[in-house]
Design a protein that fits this description.
The chain has 24 helices and three strands. The protein is mainly alpha-helical. The chain has a three-stranded antiparallel beta sheet. It starts with a helix and ends in an 8-residue tail after the last helix.
Amino acid sequence: MTSQTVTDAPHEQDPGQQPAAWGQRLRRFGYVPPGSAGVRERLVPPFPEPGSRLWQYFGFAPAAAARLARWTGWGGPLLVAVLAGALRFVNLGSPDAVIFDETYYAKDAWSLLQRGYETEWPDDANDLIMAGQTPFDDAASYVVHPPGGKWVIAVGEWLFGLTPFGWRFMVALLGTLSVLMVCRVGRRLFRSTVLGCVAGLLLAVDGLHFVMSRTALLDLVLMFWLLAAFGCLLVDRDRARARLAAALPAGSDGLLRPDAAVAGRLGLGARPWRIAAGVCLGLACATKWNGLYVLAAFGILTVLWDAAARRTAGAKRPRHAALRRDALPAFVSLVPVALGVYLVSWTGWFATSGGYYRDWANRPGAGESDYSFVPAALRSWWHYTTEVYQFHVGLTSEHTYESNPWSWLAATRPVTYFYRSEERGEGDCRHASGCAREVLALGTPLLWWTACFALAYLVYRWLLRRDWRAGAVLCAVAAGYLPWFVYQERTIFYFYAVVLTPFLCLAVTMLIGALLGPPGCSERRRVMGIVASGVLVLLIAWNFIYFYPIYTGTEIPVDGWRSRMWLDTWV
């Protein structure tokens, strides 16, 4: 079944090698020494051949069934993405209002589109916008996020105007595409189309991802680019390892043999997918600066993957070989590329003269420094950057919906984006308890609570089973989550955790793969695993449906709204 590739991680050592001393000691805690798979299979585990029996059961001829089975690698993910898109685009313009921080980003995006830089808006701008007016002026506005994510929002406004549908369109599109990407990432990670589609389905019905996909904020855009970078690095990993496998000698039996010289000295050539990851990470940093932490983590991760590949191929000192052969190319592919993309995202600010601090270096006294040889525009941009950094680290003002990152995984303090209530007889309200409409940025509770157990399982898989996939997902979660603990005094919100949602869904999917049972288990065990996994997925989907009204601002009785406030801290 599909769980085989999840529960049996490809090991990175020579199959004849004995476990190290630490491995011998850890056996009592569940450590499993490397298996006996061939070098080729351990370097590049094959995708299982899709079965065609299901299609034949529905009456298709064997040839047609085989073609349909081959198409499932894309067909299944596309169907899940269509479902996600339908959920996100239906009534996208509702609530027909400027909600929460859309008051900043929707207007900044329009200013970028019209002037190339963010401008000031009057205090009653939201009411005027909803009345069909665009009352901005040429005065530059002081903003504290790079322009990349706002340019994405601006594309929707260019297509559909300064309307709720217009400023939410591109975010909804990226939310839908991210579901497709998770399906494909999960398929490559677990070598299973079914488990990949399960991961995508879980993301499609996560409440936080859903709400953020329907709101013009920057965090969903950030999540999209980080997920895209992760996917690019996975493709790069497979291709680099395939190139390494192709260079290894084969024995008389046709099987590959480890070779220390090849594994230690072979250059892995051009790696366009790693450059693509650098572009995506640059776009992430151009959306929000916390993409920098993920850039650093992913850079280390890709070099560790290369070291593991060289060890599997037979290198005697794989870490030294990776540092010598792979570290510098990895740095060049990621950091300078990301920096270049980040600078390009400021093109509107550089190309115009009206942006905030645009002419700072030309002011009397401001440009007098040891760096006068640097172009004035770059010095002005650097001054703006340092001012924004000081703002972010010094942001400690209290907010009703702020939350400590310790509480994020338990989803104990969501954020209300929109709320409106009416008494019976007021407007169209006919319910005895009154009516309420709310848009609550809350992850599907059962999914997030399950993810807490899934992360613990992944720690076990990584530490005691040496499962690289568990380590990859944990790395992505840690890079997006742990840096926030450094800023305990800063004003922080739960919706920042949307960058974790794809990787939490992958973690839950890996747990589901374990529930399905290991290869060779009894039929009874397999059936029990399928039932347990199916029940878990259905319960998560039901939980999303139950909370759907407070994700979309649908009018419900106040009693119904109260019944959905499971925790006092949700109010």
